[in-house]
Every structure is written in C-alpha cells, then in structure tokens.
Design goal:
It is built from 21 helices and no strands. Helix 10 (about 205-215) packs across helix 13 and helix 15 (about 320-355) crosses helix 16. By secondary structure, the chain is mostly helical. The chain has helices at about 15-25, 30, 35-40, 45-70, 75-85, 90-120, 130-140, 155-175, 175-200, 205-215, 225-240, 245-250, 260-290, 305-320, 320-355, 360-380, 385-415, 420-430, 435-465, 470-495, 510-520.
Amino acid sequence: MSTAAAPREQWTGQVGFILSAIGSAVGLGNIWRFPGVAYENGGGAFLIPYLVALLTAGIPILFLDYAIGHRFRGSAPTSLRRLGGPRGRWLESLGWFQVAIAFVIGLYYTVVIAWAVSYFVFSFDLRWGDDPAGFFSGDYLQTGDPGLSFEFVPGVLIPLALVWIVTIAVLAAGVAKGLQRVNVVFLPLLVVAFLILVVRALFLEGAGVGLDALFTPNWAALGDPNVWIAAYSQIFFSLSIAFGIMITYASYRRRRSNLTAPGLVVAFANSSFEILAGIGVFATLGFFAVQENVAIGELEGLTGVGLSFITFPAIVSEMPGGALFGCLFFGSLAMAGFTSLVSVLQVVSAAVQEKFALSRRAAALGVGIVSAVLSVLLFSTTTGLLALDVTDQWANNIGIVASAVLGSVLIVWVLRRAGELRSHLNAVSTFQVGRVWVALVGVVAPVVLGYMLIQRIVTLISEGYGGLPGWYLLAFGWGSIAFIVVATIVLSLLAWRRSPDEFTPWPPYPPASTRREERAS
C-alpha cells in the first residue's frame, strides 16, 4: 500500500522560475541556428515573420504549457491525464510521447555540450591548427562511414562522461537546489560572456560587412511561404515548448503565481538573446569574409555544427586575441547547452518519479544512468556525428511538431478544455488572455505546424537527408520515431504505483460567480 505523496517541490520564487525558464529556452539553437536561418530567409525582413510567429504561435503555446502544468500540478503525463479527466485519461499518452522525445533529445544534446567543453580547452592553444574541418571530423571525432560502430573516441567519451556526472548531480539535487541554482549562476555568466564576445566582434575589421549581410532586408522573401515556415520553425524550437519542459517547470510554481507576465518576459528574453547572437556571429563572419576576400554568402558552415566547430575555430585562428574569443564562444555554447539539457532531462526524471512513486534521487539516478550509457554507446564512437545529425532531424522536425499539433487539436477540439485553461491563466495572472488566444492555439498553431509537419515528412521520404543511405535513415531517423511511439504505448499501459487521479484543480472551474449566475437563471 503506497504512502501519501510528498509535498511538491517548488521554485523559491518568481525570479528563480523566470531565470530557469529562460535558461531552458536559451540553448544551442539561439547561437548556431537563428543567425543562419535569418540570413538565408530575408535578412532584416525575416524579423517580420519571426515576430508574427512569436506572437501567434510561440507565446500562445507557451501559455498553454504553463496553464496545463500549473493547474494540474504534475509532469507532462500526470498533468495531461488530470486534464483529460475521467473520460480522457488516455491523454496521458500524449505526455509520454513528450517524455520519450525529451529522452531521445537528451541523449545527443549532451554530446554537443561535451564537444563545446573540449573546444573550450582547445581554444587555449588553438589546437585545431590550420585545418579546423579536418581536425574536427578527423583528429577529434575520427568520423567513420555510416553505420553502428563501437569504436570509442576517448576525446569525446571523457568529457561526455563528465557532463553526464554533473547533469545527474543537478537533477538529484532537486528543483530549487539543483535546476534553479545552476540557472542562477550560469545564465548571468552566459549573458556577460556573450556580451563581451559581441562587443569584441563589433570592433573587428569587416564587422559592418557581416551586419549588413544579416540585417539588409530582402522584402521579396516575405512572399515566399518557406520563409514564414522557417520563422515558425525557429520560434517553435527555440522556446522549449510542446515537449513537456514548460508543463513540468510550471508545475513547480506556487498555487498563486503570475503566469502570463513572466511568460512574456521569458519569450522576449529568448528572442533578444537570439538577435544578440545574430549580431555577434555575423560581425565575426564579416571579419572572416574580409580576411578571405569573399562574400558572406560564399562562406561555408553558417549554421549548426559547421558554424560552431569548423567556421568559428577558423575565424579564431585569424583574429587578434583569438584564444580568449574562442574561450568565450565555446564557454557560452557549453553554458547555454547545459541549462537547456537539465530542463530536457527533468521532463523525463519527473515523469518517471511520479509514475513509479520513486524518490527524486532514485528517479534522477535511474534516468541519468540509463541515458548516459545509451548516449555513450551511440554518440561517443566514430559514427556519433552522423547518428546525432539524423536523430536530431527526426526528433525535432517530426517528433516535437507532431506533439504540438496533437496537443492543440486534442485539448481544444476533442476535449474542449481551452476555456478552463484560459480561465486558469486569467485567474492567477496580470496579463489577461481572451478568445483570440484560444483561436491562436486551436486554429493558427495546428494549421501552420501541421503544414510544416506534412511538408517535412514528404521531403524526408522523397529526398532523403544529407545524401545518407536509406537504410541508415530508416534505422536512426524513422527508428527514433518508432522508439518514441513504442515507448509511449508501453509507458501509458504500465500501472501507476500511486494513482494521480485523486486531485482537485484550483481555482474551481467554472468560477463561483459563473456558477451563481447559472443557478439564478
């Protein structure tokens, strides 16, 4: 017979929550994805669809996650099961779908942080030499042909193991002493380090060339639907929404806590950091273009792994005081990645803790050790880079987008719970949301994201990805999605050690005033 549940952990206050939520949102994508995406999709003109996407999908879905987590006080599966009520307990499966996505992302996200830690050390003596591309894929990663290799690379394995040890320790320490404390320390450090990097970049020869390339508007791009899709995609992946993070984080807030105003702070802080990253990255790329006597558009590696671990080391080698610049860049990359990583894994740890009635430390150790072993086996070998690239494409572009579309449709149209969630937001928040919010969550978001999802699936099926063999994409790409689906089914069918259904949401819905009016009529 199970004992009574322990009191739910809480953030120490609003500032702790806001810093932790910003720390989750500000991650690798802010630094290595946004600048390149903006440049390739209209430059300065891209900021228009970007802002529209933020207001019509990013913030509304962020508020949806906050409302679910705060009202139903649990991890993603717990909260969604309670939201579904007696007739909709099957909604728990959507929560496990989100947990499985977070689990998969955590496996490879950790590896990129390990690379950043390695390159932070390499920056002191510019170890990549005159051939950063050859050093990264050859000397450092020892990249092999597509396949599943168990030939481990010590230079990746050792920092990866260290990152996992620190991550497990943070999760085991809990919400206030672990997650919040890391963000309170790392987020200000990240902002200061990146501001120093940006200021230094702005004084490099050619910085203006890079900023002109980034911000010169190509107004014709606004007529291209793909530019708008790119904007929604960037906002969506950047805000840590629709795969359990913000549901879990909001569940640790006190009952009487403002939700919408802090949500706006988190959303606009995240976007501000993206624009800051764009300025720093493109000012630096402008310097490199001038040194190489080429146009910005002729440079290779303007996004992702190529930008961070090939292009930037090449730039660092050519600039005055490059070692310090490299330390700042890779240190920022590691801190931004780590604050996001702990939020991703907290989704999994909290769900396992509640489903199996485990202690916080037992859940953190169990999830952490299993994740660490799989992460090491899959991504610290000579085939790790290719596996990471393919898994990331499918988990993000299919897994998370499908989660958002399913969530919007099921909650708004099938279960008709949008009114209750809107009422909850307005009952505890200063910034009130109206029927427009319901329309954005229930119509605009699923239509735009549904189009994105279908377009991406068709492209991946018809064109493949990265020129890789079909069997490899089937194993690591579609295989990741198959794993997520199977894990969802299995975890949904397992019995709860302690029933989550004996729960009364607060405040009551409909509100007391509405119930009195109904009785009077």
